[in-house]
Design a protein that fits this description.
Elements: E1 27-29, E2 37-38, H1 39-59, H2 68-113, H3 129-149, H4 154-159, H5 169-215, H6 224-261
Antiparallel strand pairs: 1-2
């Protein structure tokens, strides 16, 4: 079944747009057990397997003159290493955190890209579990980097910034605590989640409207189906860009937080 186009026209007479229920499908395997799987979970498993297989093929027999898959993997890793990690952290710290940042980037990318894969058509990151877990990992890496750099000063410098009159700490410290230790993981989670939710809902809306106009609408309105179809395909291409961009944003923000944690003032 093509999962891109749900039952938009449920009775052939009215149009039913996408709803939030799209992201909470019924169980398809092992229903009623602790191992229950629904469509979203299956998509996540497939995306993870695809990522592991691609990385394994690209790195199992490294050569001086790389083959096709090795070239793809090396280009992706070089993009993260040079353009993100070493640019912000330098070579020493970049070498330490490159595996983490690269893993986050590729994992988010593969979870996002399932939103435009035929027969899947739903991003694995469009339900809060994946964005939240990744944000927690980024948060832990940020804390670890800061404590490892300055065990005694990290929290002090984060909550009691230098140059602020002591009397103002009663105002500044709660603000710094909320912005540094609460807002950051929350915004990481919500930024990725909301982009994937909105992208999916818009795609379903365009293609559901196309189905409705072509099959159920009066003859005078069928031409509108061409417009919604064109917008649907155009937006599907845009979603590929969004999938890549959101993976990049998540990776670079994680790197920025780590860079702030290991800055000299800590």
């Amino acid at each position: 079944m093509n999962l891109l186009v749900p039952a938009a026209a449920n009775d052939g007479q009215t149009f039913q747009g996408p709803t939030i229920e799209e992201f909470f499908p019924q169980a398809v395997l092992f229903e009623g057990t602790p191992f229950e799987l629904n469509r979203v979970m299956l998509i996540r498993i497939l995306a993870t397997i695809a990522l592991i297989v691609l990385m394994w093929i690209g790195t199992r027999a490294m050569k001086v003159v790389p083959g096709r898959f090795q070239s793809v993997v090396e280009m992706g890793l070089d993009f993260i290493r040079v353009g993100v990690v070493e640019d912000l952290l330098g070579k020493k710290d970049g070498r330490r955190f490159l595996p983490l940042i690269a893993a986050i980037f590729f994992f988010v990318l593969f979870m996002n890209i399932t939103g435009v894969v035929p027969l899947l058509n739903l991003a694995g990151s469009s339900v809060i579990g994946v964005p939240l877990v990744l944000a927690v990992i980024a948060y832990i890496a940020f804390i670890y980097a800061g404590v490892r750099k300055s065990p005694k000063l990290f929290f002090k410098n984060a909550l009691l910034p230098a140059g602020v009159p002591p009397v103002l700490y009663i105002i500044v410290t709660p603000i710094e605590f909320i912005s540094t230790f609460i807002i950051r993981p929350v915004t990481l989670t919500l930024r990725l989640l909301m982009n994937m939710i909105v992208g999916h809902l818009l795609l379903v809306l365009f293609f559901s409207a196309t189905t409705f106009f072509f099959l159920y609408a009066p003859a005078a309105f069928k031409a509108f189906g061409l417009g919604t179809l064109a917008f649907g395909f155009a937006f599907q291409l845009f979603e590929v860009l969004v999938a890549l961009l959101q993976a990049y944003v998540f990776a670079i923000l994680t790197t920025v937080y780590i860079q702030l944690a290991v800055a000299e003032e800590h």
